[in-house]
Amino acid sequence: MLKICLTLAVAWIGFQAAKKFRLPAPAMIGSMLAVGLTNIIWDYAYLPTWVRISAQAISGGFIGMQITKKDVRNAKYLLKPFFLLVLMLTANTFVTGVVVHKIAGIDYVTALLGSVAGGVTDISMLSIDLGGDTPIVALMQTLRLVGVLLFFPYWIRFFTRNEGDAEEDVRLVTGTLEMGETWLDRLIYGRNRKLAFTMIVCLAAGFAGYASGVPAGAMVFAIVVIVLLNITTSACYVPLTIKTVAQLLAGAVVGCSIHPSALALLNGGTVIALLILMANYWLVNLIYSTICKKKGMLDLKSAMLAAAPGGATDMSLIAADLNADLTKIALIQVLRAIYAVTFMPMVIVLFVNWVR
Length: 356
What we know:
The chain has helices spanning 2-20, 26-42, 49-64, 69-75, 79-104, 108-115, 120-130, 134-159, 183-187, 191-212, 217-232, 240-256, 260-263, 268-295, 300-307, 312-321, 326-342, 344-355. It is mainly alpha-helical and 356 residues long. It has one domain (50-355). It is globular. The two termini are 40 Å apart.
């Protein structure tokens, strides 16, 4: 119990420090660095399995909450650019993963998960379930996120400097769609009840997913259940603070897996692999946006922002500064994130089993 309390305390301190220095995803990255670095020195960090499953389930629930009835209505208009993006990102994951495996000597699971365009928290947590080297996966994912947030806005501004503002697509539903009241809405009302209900459902789905043996089952099950509830009822509610708690726990869990032996993997080959990872994302972004513009699927600015491998919230904020199409960008980004944590783990497992 003392180790658990100490681990969580260090994670909280790391989170606060990361906020002060304005690091991206401070709850995840700050807690991970604080726990990981201190664990290298004192080898004290410990969190039980149920904490990891809970963090995955809550993260899945938060992702699921991003899909609303409005998004379901709009999705049909964005199927072409979304499937093109998924196809290109999937191909990029395997090309990059194989190259990283060959150059850096990293195992396939770690190399492929590190190359997935998913969230730092989500993919790092999934690597524990799939048997990857979590510190390396977290490092690759963190570099991608930092690179996107620091450099992609300038990259997009440069290539779209002669582009006008995006025109609003009149086909897309904006605002909030009214939903008919269900028996569940009559039973679950008020923020506190909705929050308690959502947490219970997330955790139940998460532990059921974990017990099922499905790759990344805890997160996948939570996403599916919450999406179904969120598009049919108004009974679900997850405040941002809950997401922060889940990220902090996830960062602490990843930090627990960082031992002195992990430092031996940070060699010249790993650095080259990380550079290849970023270069490939830049290339995919440019090719995808060019195709979308030529085929009339998306304007150049919106396509580049939609294909940027960052978070939906981060990309939407950047899009607002660049006067791009927020509705399209946010929906494609959310769908991409869901695809990354639901389908990619299963595809990676199939691939690894095949090459073995």
